[in-house]
Amino acid sequence: MSRPVAKPVVLVLMGVSGCGKTTVAAILAGRLGWPFEEGDALHPPSNIEKMKAGHPLNDEDRAPWLEKVAGWVDERLDAGASGIITCSALKRAYRDVIGRRGAGVEFVYLAGSRETIAARLAARHGHFMPPSLLDSQFADLEEPTADEPAMRVDIGPAPSAIAQIIVDTLELP
Question: How many structural domains does the chain have?
Fold first, then answer.
């Protein structure tokens, strides 16, 4: 059962591939009882194939995907409900598409060093995103600025601790 909040909010867990978006989002969804969407599942097949082949996505590739992510966010907020979605949201322009309503979206930037994330990617199996694309992700990354609805969380602690930091910081139920 979903826990009520004063106003609906959609958390967008963002950051480069391998930062822990899916793991932390799943923990949050379980704790809060909120719906969770894996943003990678919204990619068109052409994007998945491009990444599998070791080619980074460009803005044109990402545009239809970002529209699907934004649509999921809009559906939740239109229904007066909270939710959690993962999306790299590497550039401010991408976050502007996702948060186009101007309210109701909170970006949670899972931040870590290239070395830490590279080690995680090297140990990860079965994901379409090859470790060779990590440098392109960091090259595209524009960390959220103070004027964006975003919080920064270091990925050093265990995922459950990161989830608790998010709950505490955002004063979620």
Answer: 1
